Amino acid sequence: MIKKSVFTLAGMTLLIAQSLQAAPLRVAADPVPHAEILAYVKKIDPKLDLNIVELSGSVNANELLASGDVDANYFQHLPYLKDQEKALGKTFAVAANVHIEPLGIYSRKVKSLDALPQGASIAVPNNTTNLSRALWLLQDKGVIRLKAQGAAGSTLVTPKNISDNPKQIKIIEIESPQLPRSLDDVDAAIINGNYALEAGLTPAKDALGLESAEHNPYANLLVTTPELAKDPRIVQLAKDLTSPQVTDFIRKNYHGSVIPVADEKHD
């Protein structure tokens, strides 16, 4: 009787595993460029049954993942993920490093950073990691100086860490999706690559200042749960997203505004 029970349990486990593998893989993603890249994956790998869940508004894709509403998400970089793990009390798993969206400084009022007026207002993302990232970018471009030590991505900073602000720049914190809309109201805005692309901006052409892709710690990730990290569907999607075909698709379609991690490694 004991052997029969063990066999039955093993059979049930196998059936459950097979059922999961047969089910569509639900992946939450920002519309641009993430969902577009996933749509291309569906084209080149039709055997992988992808259900792309496009994110909108204030939906938290990590909460969706933690609650089991999706199997993976593709929209965030590692510093943001770590911050989310602390906030949600959850542990996630990185399945692949896919691409970099350089953070950019944009303006409809000035043509260069040197032309920023005294007391200029600059809108920045209001979440902890991207606010810090924006301030490091402003230092890199010579607009401010920080008293923090380390490099972008390794040390979180806030406006309190600004030690030198010769133009008396005013930092205005705004929710990331709203930053493109703020361009008419501020002298400049620092906008995440995906939101810039959605707003019709071309980061590689339109930004007054752009993050370097070299040694950039903000690669966008395919993220899942520890339980699904070895799921064959996740493994295959990770393989697809880092394949030569997808790398070429990103190069040809985003013209330096989205940079495959494979390219950064060869800088």
From TrEMBL:
Chief localisation class: membrane
Organism domain of life: Bacteria
Pfam families named among the record's database cross-references: Lipoprotein_9 (PF03180)
Annotated signal sequence range: 1-22
Keywords from the UniProt entry: Lipoprotein, Membrane, Palmitate, Signal
Cited SUPFAM superfamilies: Periplasmic binding protein-like II
Membrane topology note: Lipid-anchor
Compartments where located: Membrane
Gene Ontology cellular-component annotations: membrane
PANTHER family on file: D-METHIONINE-BINDING LIPOPROTEIN METQ, METHIONINE-BINDING LIPOPROTEIN METQ
Family statement drawn from the similarity comment of this UniProt entry: Belongs to the nlpA lipoprotein family.
Protein name: Lipoprotein
Protein's organism: Mixta theicola
